[in-house]
Write a structure and sequence with these properties.
single chain, alpha+beta, Beta-Lactamase, Hypothetical protein af1432, 3 domains, 7 strands, flat
Length: 454
C-alpha cells in the first residue's frame, strides 16, 4: 500500500509540473501572438488603402510620394514598437499563391529570413508555404510557430487593409522579435525539471516516513496547479506539513507570482503601444493633440472624488488614455472635416467605439474597463451610441469618461468651431445633467472644477 501511495505522489508531482510547464509555454506564446495581432490590426487601420493602390508596382515606385507617405507611416508604427524587425505591405497578383510587395520601408535590406531577398514594389513572393499569411485577406492572423533567422527567433502577423467600400486590397505584414519568449520557455523548462526532480526526491523520502501527512499537502499542490492552468495566477498554495513540502509550496507560489507579474507587464506594454498609436494620430491635428491624456486625467480625478479605490482609478486612467483607439479606422479627412458630415461619414464616426472594443478584446482587459471603450458615447437618456443604453445600464466608468470627454471637447478648439470658455462649458454640464450625463458623475465633476477655482 505504501509503494502505491508513493507512486501516486510521484505521479501527482510530475503531472503538476508538466501542467505548469505547458501553461507557461502556451501563456507566453499566446501573449506574443495577441500582442502581434493588436499591432497588425491597428497598423492596418492606420494605412490608406487608396494611396497604396496608387503606388506603381515597379522599382521606380519607391520614388513616388505615395510610397514615401506609406513608408513613413510604417516607420512610425515600427518606432512605436521597437520589437518589430520587419514591416511591409503586399497585394495579390493574378497568379494563385503569388503575391507582390507594395511598400517596404527598407527595400534594399538583405533579408536573413528565407522568405525573401528583396522587397521593391512589384517584387513577387510565393505565399503557398505560409498558410497563416494566405488567410490575411479574410482577417487578421498570426503564425502558429516561431521562425529562426541569424538574429534570433521571430513571429509574423498579418492583417487586411480595407478600402472605403470595405474590400481588402492589400495586407500588412509584421515580423517581431520573439527571443524573450524562446529564452523564457527554455529557462522555465530548466526550472520545471529541477522542481520535478526535487518533488520526486521529497515525495520518496517523505512518502516512506510519513505518507499520510504528505497526501494532503501534495493534493493542495495539485489543486494549485489546476488553478494556475486555468489562468488564476493569483492563487496561493497554503501547504502544511514538513519543511520540504512548505519549501516546495513556496517555490510554487513564487513561480505563480512571477507569471502574474509577467502578464501584467505584457498588458502594460500593450497599453503603451496603443497609446503611442493614439498619440501619433492626435499629433497630426493641433485641435485634438493631447485630448486622450487630458480625458484620462479628468476621469481619474472624478473617480477619486467619487471614492473609487486606487486600483480601479489606475485601470480607468489606462483605458481612458486609449478610449478613442477605434478612430484609427477613420480617415483623417473625416475626423478633421470642417463641413457637416454626411450620413455615411457619421455612421463611420459612430462605429469607432465598437471598432476600439474589437481591437482591445484580445488583450483580455477587465470587462468593466473594456466597456469604457464601447460605451463612452452612451447618454443617460438612452440617446447615445452604439447601444442606446440608459441610466444604470451604462457602466459607471464609461459615464465618467463620457463627462470628461465632453468637457475636454467643449474647452478645446476644433476644426469646425472655437473652444468654449470654462464658464460656458460648466453651464453645459449642468444643463445636460440627467440627459447626457450621469447626475452623480456630473455633480462630482462640477465640484472638482469648482475646487480648482478656489
Amino acid at each position: 500500500m505504501t509503494l502505491v501511495l508513493i507512486a501516486a505522489m510521484i505521479f501527482s508531482v510530475a503531472m503538476s509540473n508538466f501542467l505548469i510547464y505547458e501553461y507557461v509555454s502556451a501563456s507566453r506564446f499566446n501573449e506574443l501572438r495577441n500582442r502581434l495581432m493588436i499591432i497588425t490590426q491597428t497598423g492596418a487601420l492606420a494605412l490608406d488603402a487608396d494611396m497604396l493602390k496608387r503606388v506603381p508596382l515597379n522599382r521606380e515606385g519607391i520614388n513616388t510620394d505615395e510610397f514615401r507617405i506609406i513608408s513613413g507611416k510604417l516607420k512610425e508604427i515600427k518606432k512605436a514598437n521597437p520589437r518589430i524587425k520587419y514591416i511591409y505591405t503586399m497585394a495579390r497578383t493574378g497568379q494563385k499563391g503569388i503575391w507582390q510587395f507594395i511598400v517596404d520601408p527598407n527595400p534594399t535590406m538583405q533579408r536573413a529570413m528565407p522568405k525573401w531577398r528583396t522587397s521593391y514594389p512589384g517584387d513577387k513572393y510565393d505565399v503557398s508555404g505560409f498558410p497563416e499569411m494566405r488567410q490575411a485577406f479574410s482577417g487578421p492572423s498570426v503564425d502558429k510557430e516561431l521562425s529562426a533567422d541569424d538574429w534570433g527567433m521571430a513571429l509574423s502577423g498579418y492583417a487586411p487593409i480595407y478600402d472605403e467600400e470595405g474590400e481588402p486590397v492589400a495586407i500588412l505584414g509584421v515580423d517581431v522579435a520573439a527571443d524573450e519568449v524562446y529564452l523564457t520557455q527554455r529557462e522555465v523548462h530548466k526550472r520545471i525539471l529541477f522542481i520535478l526532480l526535487s518533488g520526486i526526491i521529497v515525495s520518496l523520502a517523505l512518502g516512506m516516513l510519513i505518507s499520510k501527512r504528505i497526501t494532503r499537502p501534495v493534493g493542495e499542490l495539485v489543486e494549485g496547479t489546476r488553478r494556475i492552468a486555468k489562468g488564476d495566477l493569483r492563487y496561493e498554495v497554503k501547504a502544511s506539513g514538513s519543511d520540504e513540502i512548505r519549501e516546495l509550496a513556496k517555490s510554487f507560489n513564487q513561480m505563480a507570482k512571477g507569471l502574474a507579474e509577467s502578464r501584467q507587464k505584457s498588458l502594460d506594454y500593450f497599453y503603451r503601444v496603443v497609446e503611442s498609436l493614439v498619440r501619433a494620430i492626435e499629433a497630426k491635428d493641433a485641435y485634438t493633440k493631447g485630448h486622450s491624456e487630458r480625458v484620462a486625467d479628468y476621469a481619474a480625478r472624478i473617480a477619486l472624488k467619487m471614492g473609487f479605490p486606487d486600483e480601479k482609478i489606475m485601470l480607468l486612467r489606462e483605458i481612458a488614455s486609449i478610449h478613442d483607439i477605434g478612430k484609427l479606422g477613420i480617415s483623417d479627412n473625416i475626423l478633421n472635416k470642417k463641413e457637416k458630415l454626411s450620413d455615411e461619414e457619421m455612421d463611420l464616426i459612430r462605429a469607432h467605439p465598437v471598432t476600439g472594443e474589437e481591437i482591445l478584446k484580445p488583450l483580455r482587459i477587465n470587462k468593466e474597463m473594456l466597456a469604457v471603450v464601447r460605451s463612452h458615447h452612451e447618454r443617460h437618456d438612452a440617446s447615445g451610441y452604439p447601444d442606446k443604453l440608459s441610466a444604470h445600464n451604462i457602466n459607471i466608468f464609461a459615464a465618467i469618461v463620457s463627462a470628461a470627454d465632453a468637457y475636454d471637447a467643449m474647452t478645446s478648439h476644433r476644426a469646425y468651431r472655437k473652444a468654449l470658455g470654462k464658464e460656458e462649458a460648466v453651464a453645459e454640464l449642468k444643463k445636460n445633467i440627467g440627459t447626457q450625463f450621469n447626475p452623480k458623475v456630473a455633480d462630482a465633476f462640477l465640484e472638482l472644477l469648482e475646487e480648482q477655482e478656489r
